[in-house]
Amino acid sequence: NLAFRGTAVQSSTYDHLTAAQNAVDGNRNSIYTSGSCSHTKADRNPWWRVDLLTVYKITRVSITNRGDCCAERINGAQIRIGNSLENNGNNNQLAATVVSIPLGETQTFKFHPIKGRYVNIFIPGRNDYLTLCEVEVFAGE
């Protein structure tokens, strides 16, 4: 998991329990109050990003959704990968779009390899909270 202990940032931070870094702590605990999820405020176009510190050929990303409420908030989120920080990295190549992830579940998105240092999760076009309980990034098979 290339994202583990990578450097994470997000468009805003909801409260003291919800730092961006929580989504790459290696813990898939999906209960908000456990302190292992990242969570933005109700931003317009909320985003979260991990810096892998090196460029990799990324082939899949796993996202663990919040388990205690609000599963639908992740719907429509885009996974974007690349080397640019233009628009906070949200203009990088689109790897996949989340249709839905059930409460507390982990879903893996596989795609043709995309070279990049930054992996963004981005909800375009609406005001919403972005909650991620774990994001795992993999290169190769």
From TrEMBL:
GO terms for biological process: regulation of cellular defense response; regulation of complement activation, lectin pathway. Keywords: Calcium, Disulfide bond, Lectin, Metal-binding. Coiled coil: none annotated. Transmembrane segments: none annotated. Residues 1-141 form the Fucolectin tachylectin-4 pentraxin-1 domain. GO terms for molecular function: fucose binding; metal ion binding. It comes from the Eukaryota. Gene3D superfamilies: Galactose-binding domain-like. Belongs to the fucolectin family. Acts as a defensive agent. Recognizes blood group fucosylated oligosaccharides including A, B, H and Lewis B-type antigens. Does not recognize Lewis A antigen and has low affinity for monovalent haptens. Homotrimer. This is Fucolectin tachylectin-4 pentraxin-1 domain-containing protein.
